[in-house]
Specification:
By secondary structure, the protein is of the alpha+beta class. The protein has helices at 2-27, 74-87, 92-104, 107-112, 114-123, 128-145, 155-184, 209-212, 235-241, 273-299, 309-321, 324-342, 350-363, 369-399, and strands spanning 34-48, 51-65, 188-189, 192-194, 201-204, 220-224, 227-228, 247-253, 256-263, 266-267.
């Protein structure tokens, strides 16, 4: 059951991400053609107002199909209608006229030739496979030639639509952290903060019991009142469980185990919404800095911090065992991680599309399709490499 809920949580983050793209695209005049959770083949789909909504069989992501991501090029016709042309040479004349218009940059003229090309395909005698490919290609060309095509839009619109996905994940994380601070604030505290998910002390308040008992930044908390600590999420409920009674800690400092305390935790007041929001923003900044540091460590060969969807689901299900609040903290962390990962300047990630949109805005003209394809091949290879590194880490962790 926990694994199922964890998968649903991951699906929720993807839904939030794609909804950001979808609603922002509609707001600036680009009508999306599809909104999917998961990747094809579809297991469910429905069409409403010329938009296809669906659920894919491969639950590893999702996508929103925005029309005309790339400027139509003559080579597109060879790709889409090549098989049909091989079976029906009479398509050559209308195809060449269409390609000539695209080569000249006459997009309106090419759009005017669409009915002629569609009629020629309808009258041609070609196999079902070639017909299906040609019709799919004509739909792509029609989207690319439409006035709401992505490549036609102003740079700020393109950047806004692409940034909206990770931006919505970022906002979701901030709101969720703030809500957790409000709900989970109060209770008993010793007056120290931890480094995100690890039980390592980040800071100690001088006017709180943690400072008086000798706790220092960099200490790794091993147990609380004799109860073992494996991760940061274990500590708050153990302190809360004391109900104000004295607490002892055991920490690892410079390779040695050091007992600290006892000290009586202090009852803390509930946080207001503005204070919780500020704390959420501070936490988001700290986690962002830590994720950036982990990426630099990855470049230097420290690959153990990378995880795949297998590890994400496993970690989320473990968090569920410790309670709903712990799970929601992990969900916020995953949402923030998803936002930052997608902002890496690699195609096909959102950051890559943002970078190319800015480059095209500076150049004043579109980047060629072949450049996109070559850069995307490199980006896909790097993303797959990260996936397989994370998967090997997760399999090793499961084995242990």
């Amino acid at each position: 059951m926990n694994v199922f809920v964890a998968i649903l949580g991951l699906g929720l983050l993807i839904l939030v991400h794609e909804a950001g793209h979808f609603f922002t695209a509609r707001a600036v005049g680009m009508t999306p053609r599809k909104f999917y959770i998961g990747f094809p083949p579809p297991i469910f789909r429905i069409r409403r107002k010329n938009i296809e909504y669906g659920i894919g069989a491969i639950p590893l992501g999702g996508y929103v199909k925005i029309p005309g991501m790339h400027r139509p090029a003559p080579s597109d016709l060879d790709t889409f209608l090549g098989p049909a042309l091989a079976e029906a040479p009479n398509l050559l004349a209308p195809l060449e006229r269409f390609k000539r218009r695209l080569a000249e940059g006459d997009m309106e003229g090419a759009r005017d030739l669409m009915p002629e090309l569609e009629q020629a395909l309808k009258e041609a005698s070609v196999s079902p496979h070639a017909t299906k490919a040609a019709r799919r290609g004509l739909n792509e060309l029609r989207d690319g030639l439409g006035m709401d095509a992505y490549w036609r839009q102003k740079t700020w619109k393109k950047v806004l639509v692409i940034f909206a996905g990770p931006g919505t994940n970022l906002l979701f994380a901030i709101v969720l952290f703030a809500a957790l601070y409000v709900v989970g604030s109060g209770g008993y505290r010793l007056g120290f903060s931890l480094e995100t998910t690890t039980p390592v002390v980040h800071a100690v308040r001088a006017d709180r019991p943690a400072s008086r008992m000798g706790l220092k930044p960099g200490d790794r908390i091993v147990n609380v009142n004799g109860a073992p600590v494996k991760q940061a999420a274990d500590i708050p409920p153990l302190i809360e469980r004391s109900r104000g009674r004295p607490i002892t800690l055991t920490v690892r400092r410079n390779g040695q185990l050091i007992p600290l305390g006892p000290a009586r935790p202090k009852a803390e007041p509930k946080l207001s919404v503005p204070t919780a929001t500020w704390q959420s923003l501070r936490l988001t900044g700290r986690i962002t800095k830590e994720i950036a540091a982990s990426l630099t460590r990855l470049v230097r060969g420290h690959r153990k911090e990378v995880s795949s969807p297998v590890g994400i689901v496993e970690g989320s299900s473990e968090a569920l065992k410790q309670g709903a609040q712990t799970y929601f903290w992990v969900l916020g962390l995953l949402s923030l991680s998803l936002a930052l990962l997608n902002l890496l300047p690699l195609l096909p990630l959102d950051g890559g599309h943002i970078a190319f949109s800015v480059i095209e805005g500076i150049r004043g003209r579109a980047v060629g399709r072949e450049v996109y394809e070559r850069v995307s091949a490199v980006g896909i290879a790097l993303v797959l490499l990260l996936f397989f590194i994370g998967l090997s880490n997760d399999i090793g962790n499961l084995g242990n």
